[in-house]
Design brief:
This protein is mainly alpha-helical. 64% of the residues lie in helices and 10% in strands. A two-stranded antiparallel ribbon has the order 1-2. Strand 1 and strand 2 form a beta hairpin. Helix 1 packs across helix 2 and helix 1 runs parallel beside helix 5. The mean pLDDT is 84.
Length: 154
């Protein structure tokens, strides 16, 4: 299966919006802080925190609902012996909330784009990712501008 031209354009648009989201977060911090070293340190800490949050949300999202006991025979055919409910499964509602937060974070969107399998491109809704990026970019920029104008300039 080939990727269509429209899907390719959407991937490029999503990548551009992820870069703009990072820039808006870092720009907001730079507008609030008066020291360059402090804003750089805060931006690095924000990046690391977002990375850790994305990793933990990814773990929560990927927990399987069932635990399979399987074996493979000599023909590499998988045989399921038993299928039990996973006691660590968080539930559909928690997974939906975690997925929403995951896709709202630029690292989560970048991970989704980087994990695209061309054979199963329909499983990822590429058209939803800009819906998560645009409000993030807009709100972060509005907060940064508001706080910048309230700041005492020397």
């Amino acid at each position: 299966m080939k990727i269509s031209f429209l899907e390719y354009i959407i991937i490029i648009l999503n990548t551009f919006l992820i870069i703009v989201a990072y820039c808006s977060i870092f720009n907001c911090v730079a507008m609030i802080c008066s020291e360059i070293t402090i804003s750089t340190t805060i931006n690095i800490l924000i990046f690391i925190a977002l990375y850790i949050i994305t990793a933990s949300l990814s773990y929560t999202i990927d927990i399987p609902q069932y635990i399979n006991s399987t074996y493979y025979d000599t023909d590499e055919t998988q045989h399921i012996i038993s299928q039990e409910i996973n006691p660590n499964y968080p539930g559909e509602e928690k997974i939906r909330i975690a997925k929403t937060i995951y896709l709202s974070i630029p690292q989560g969107q970048a991970t989704e784009i980087s994990n695209i399998d061309i054979q199963n491109i329909g499983n990822i809704n590429l058209y939803q990712l800009p819906i998560y990026s645009m409000p993030l970019v807009t709100s972060i920029n509005m907060i940064g501008i508001y706080l910048f104008f309230r700041k005492e300039l020397k």
